[in-house]
Amino acid sequence: MKTSNKPTGKTGKMEDSEFHEFFVDELKDIYWAEKHLAKALPKMQKAATSPELAAAFEKHTQETEQHITTLEQVFELLGEKAVAKKCDAMAGLLEEANGIIEDTDKGTMIRDAGLILAAQKVEHYEIATYGTLRTFASNMGHTDVEELLQQTLDNEKETDVALTTLAESCVNEAAAQE
């Protein structure tokens, strides 16, 4: 394993560290994911049957835009350019969401249940990613970056809970009766 004798500076930056390079590469991956999610959520909002789910997707779109801005701050703190690298996982999850829209009837709670399923798969991917990236930042001494990633992680968890609550409070039961 390579080690650096360079001072790490304010953010603990280790420019010549393989781990730092891997960390930045994964930030580029989630940056792509967030940007593409921001484009997909309005389509999911439009496809939703219940006004509550449509509102949840609208709120999620705004939060996703904030996540993009936060990631741009992270890149800046690291002295890196905010560049997106295709995220195959998010591409697949968004393709699956489109398939749910295509395979369910408009105006049904079955569609809403499917959209919640798709959205929660996205949330769980994001929770796993942000949790790991936050830990990476911590391990490298990037405390300012760690704090920003923790804020996004907390928001992703809140969105997941909100989707679960919506599914359990009305959508799933209504879908089961269609």
Please describe the topology of this protein.
Layout: H1 18-47, H2 51-77, H3 88-103, H4 109-139, H5 143-176
Which features would summarize this protein structure in a list?
178 residues; mainly alpha; 5 helices; disordered N terminus
Descriptive overview:
- The structure is a single chain.
- The protein is an all-alpha fold.
- 78% of the residues lie in helices and 0% in strands.
- It has five helices and no strands.
- The model is unreliable at 1-13 (pLDDT under 50).
Distance between the termini: 58 Å
- How would the global form be characterised? elongated
Rg value: 18 Å
* Structure annotation, total helices: 5
Low-confidence stretches: 1-13
Summarize the structure.
This protein is an all-alpha fold. It has helices spanning 18-47, 51-77, 88-103, 109-139, 143-176.
